[in-house]
């Protein structure tokens, strides 16, 4: 398949290794992965702040970059949620609708489309706390959220369970929001930081060496919080683990 | 002895609620060293600062709440405990999700036929011998109730908890016309005695430590200020309140459900205080929001199964009281209140907020609410449901509230009537920007972001500049008052190269 690789702005700038892992992982499964170089962002920061009209030019650029691929794949749940569910500042032409519908987050792509059943190259002999971001959990429905009465399922856990040596720990509040929330993190910084402190402490108490997530933005926030209060815990994106990162 | 008010502010002793005073005079030096050596209870953080119509600064009040760690920890854990109890109850009901869908459908049906059901309710209530009144807004509600009380020569009124009366500013109004109102719900009474609004729609004093309650009661009903035993405090309140109930001229309740086919109202409580308020005096007035209607008595079962499980994680409230008509020799009045509800019903994106049954589950699960305290919202309704209801009362004053959310969506998942709360929060942000109720700074920043992110070359340059700055500027430049991110968190460290540069170097042909 011919896949357009969408690397959101903060991953491009701060966490290139997450982009590299996503690209290599897709290549391991035999796909042609193209990275349109003029890409920037999906428009989510403006849209979540209510400024939908200010997203229009960014959304048009996104569609120009990602039109015509079999799938568009990104290592970021919240961005994919935005593209799929809220991306409506521009006219909804068939082309726009097509791009939106073909945009997938890496975990759901591997789980639902690729139906990956083995990662023989990957070993991760560590105790891991899985952080399902709110975008992946309650919007993209990666897993059963604790609030609903429905049978347990977890796509990220299904994939990670195929990695040799991995061990999961269970925090006391497994799917409470970590407090990032996009611009919330700066407009309500005190509450945001406290939520982050509580989240990383909860994982640390459960015995996690690593917090693994499909959302780098949550990890960036949690890492900043952990470093500030001195919680010794490491952070890694799920694509890196699945691609065989040795930590 | 000097009057402290005449001293220069810097010479005045700091406010110290623990300081030893005698006859209004603060004791100092040797006298004050006899102060008992007990650790001072953490003072209770107060709510948002209200400046007329100016936008409430929820973030500021939340930061003060967080600066009181004992209060914040207790509040977060107490409400999280309710959420966990709710989850346990949910797992005990196999048809839980079906019940939620049913409850939502009943409410949507009723709201889209509200005029018919209200007429039916009124006709049946009148047939039962109840006096029915219609109030367009809060002021009319207060005037109507005052009129009823005047007709009966009533000077004192005991009431159970009602968010509608909070919404109407009922107690201040009654105080202004010389009628004494006594709250009979324990939490609500604590708040009344402390002259503070309820912070939660089900547990109004949940933000207070027992030491806070001991302080309030010692000043108001004369308990021992050093005794914060909860049984002692609850009993003292009961002893002080019971005679007031027995002597009251009139009683008032709210209404959880108003049943159209019977013309009766249903009130769900845990303390039995609504029954006392309604049944002891010879006059019972029930204030009813018009959205409280349900068509038939059989629908009540759906809501009763959901309400207390969602609210407190208990299978049912201790009391589910049905009031259908006056007892012999007494009078019953229903006041049906609109106060903005009809207008809300006409809002395409927001009308389903009227499905709310006021269980507070969205507040208990909300990670922002649990860490900010309900009073930080500076509004009658706090937490997620408040974020989507408050702006309908005053878009300017409550313009910041829809931003006090991470849009995590847990509120929508726990809502027993399936209100898409987090989607409405998102929609309110758009709406407030459209109505120009968002600060200019934010507007300018978002416009600039929109322009930058639609121009690849400028965007590339910005990333390079940011990483250069993060990698090279000294800490004191990066972590300053302007860096809201860095106040409580470390910045991410810039990598050797961006993904974009890596790709150019390693996959030059794949673009």
What are the main properties of this structure?
heterodimer; A: about 250 residues; alpha/beta; Rossmann fold; 2 domains; four-stranded parallel sheet; 8 strands; about 10% strand; B: about 500 residues; Fumarate Reductase Iron-sulfur Protein, Chain B, domain 2; six-stranded parallel sheet; four-stranded mixed sheet; globular
In short:
The complex is a heterodimer of chains A (247) and B (511). By secondary structure, chain A is an alpha/beta fold.
Molecular structure report:
The complex is a heterodimer of chains A (247) and B (511). Chain A has helices spanning 9-14, 16-28, 44-48, 56-66, 77-86, 94-101, 106-113, 134-139, 155-160, 184-187, 189-205, 216-229, 238-242; strands at 2-5, 32-34, 71-74, 103-105, 127-131, 167-169, 210-213, 234-237. Chain A is an alpha/beta fold. The longest helix of chain A has 17 residues, at 189-205. In chain A, the strands form two sheets. Chain A has a four-stranded parallel sheet, with helices on both faces. In chain A, strands 6-5-7-8 form a four-stranded parallel sheet. In chain A, 46% of the residues lie in helices and 12% in strands. Chain A has two domains: 2-113, no CATH class; 127-242, Rossmann fold (3-Layer(aba) Sandwich). By secondary structure, chain B is of the alpha/beta class. Chain B folds into three domains: 58-69 and 344-440, Fumarate Reductase Iron-sulfur Protein, Chain B, domain 2, CATH 1.10.1060; 93-339, 3-Layer(aba) Sandwich (Rossmann fold); 452-506, no CATH class. Chain B has a six-stranded parallel sheet with strand order 3-12-9-6-4-5, with helices on both faces. Residues 1-14 and 16-37 of chain B have low confidence and may be disordered. At the A-B interface, α1, α2, β2, α3 and α4 of A face α2, α3, α16, α18 and α19 of B.
